[in-house]
């Protein structure tokens, strides 16, 4: 009689542990981090600059956390490119040659892109902007 009661006690000790492990797996699956997806604005941007530097060439990729927004970004790419071309060509070459100037320009460009997307789709959808190549001459 001792053996079955020992089995019952062990069962009651192990069962809660296995249930809590399963609950942890469910919670972990429910809280998945959002995946970043990117849209490349191509072809490269080439613009004349203000001041001593004559031109800039760069490649830009836009990041969103919602894969469904890629279609909207692609649809409105001409408006995004237009806004970025105006913004880039209005820069002074000396201001955007160093890393601080480049980062400041990146933030201003991101805000410009978000504003265009807000006007076009009523959703900013773009969460970040990256220069994947960057050259100022």
UniProtKB/TrEMBL annotation:
Predominant location category: membrane
InterPro entries associated with the record: FliL
Membrane topology recorded in Swiss-Prot or TrEMBL: Single-pass membrane protein
Keyword set, alphabetical order: Cell inner membrane, Cell membrane, Cell projection, Chemotaxis, Cilium, Flagellar rotation, Flagellum, Membrane, Signal, Transmembrane, Transmembrane helix
Subcellular location: Cell inner membrane; Cell membrane
Gene Ontology biological process terms from the UniProt entry: bacterial-type flagellum-dependent swarming motility; chemotaxis
Function: Controls the rotational direction of flagella during chemotaxis.
Protein name, as recorded: Flagellar protein FliL
Protein's organism: Sedimenticola selenatireducens
Lineage of the organism: Bacteria, Pseudomonadati, Pseudomonadota, Gammaproteobacteria, Chromatiales
């Amino acid at each position: 009689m001792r053996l079955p009661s020992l089995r019952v006690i062990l069962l009651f000790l192990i069962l809660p542990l296995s249930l809590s492990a399963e609950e942890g797996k469910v919670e972990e699956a429910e809280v998945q981090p959002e995946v970043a997806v990117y849209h490349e604005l191509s072809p490269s941007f080439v613009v004349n600059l203000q001041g001593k530097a004559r031109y800039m060439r760069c490649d830009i990729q836009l990041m969103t956390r919602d894969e469904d927004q890629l279609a909207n970004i692609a649809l409105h790419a001409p408006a995004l490119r237009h806004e970025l071309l105006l913004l880039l060509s209005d820069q002074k070459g000396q201001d955007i040659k160093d890393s601080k100037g480049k980062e400041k320009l990146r933030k201003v460009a991101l805000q410009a892109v978000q504003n265009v997307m807000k006007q076009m789709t009523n959703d900013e959808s773009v969460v970040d902007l990256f220069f994947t190549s960057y050259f100022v001459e």
